[in-house]
Amino acid sequence: MTTPDHILVLKEELQGEDGSFLIELRCNLKWNKKAFIRLIRAMQDYIERRPKSESLERWVAEGFWFLDHFVKEWSSHASFSRPYERQYYEDAYERLHDLAYWLFVGESPYEDGSLHHSMSNSYSQRIRWRIV
């Protein structure tokens, strides 16, 4: 049985493989936007495709939990270069938190069940174009 691509990508990202968002962030003190997009897409694909009746695998739960706090803590350090607007990072932190919420609670934090909308339409537009 082969492993679906989104799970392979998620494993590579969470295990800190070469070119992963976490390696760039932690070791190179660099926010790799392309790697971040790959990470959040893999996270969302995992959530949307996993059977709700299945138990969470430990590596997935630990990875989502870790990302929810580590990324913000690490990239908020004074030595970390931030080439994007402050709001971009705030939106990214919120996206990671929302993905963790969705995984652990079992429902999207947004009314329509996606990660593309929120209570504020302006936020919805901002998160869509700034993160992706």
Molecular structure report:
With 132 residues, the protein is mainly α. The radius of gyration is 15 Å and the shape is globular. It is built from six helices and no strands. The protein has one domain. Helix 1 packs across helix 3, helix 4 runs antiparallel to helix 5 and helix 5 packs across helix 6. The longest helix is centred in the C-terminal third of the chain and has 20 residues. The N and C termini lie far apart (32 Å).
Label this structure with key terms.
132 residues; mainly alpha; 64% helix; 0% strand; disordered C terminus
Largest sheet: none
State which percent range the strand residues make up.
under 5%
Radius of gyration, CA atoms, in whole angstroms = 15 Å
How many domains is the backbone divided into?
1
Count the DSSP helices.
Answer: 6
Instruction: Give the terminus-to-terminus CA distance.
Output: 32 Å
Provide a short characterization of the protein structure.
By secondary structure, the protein is mainly alpha-helical. The chain is 64% helix and 0% strand. It has helices at 5-14, 21-28, 33-49, 58-75, 86-105, 121-131.
What is the topological layout?
Layout: H1 5-14, H2 21-28, H3 33-49, H4 58-75, H5 86-105, H6 121-131
Helix pairs in contact: 1-3, 3-5, 4-5, 5-6
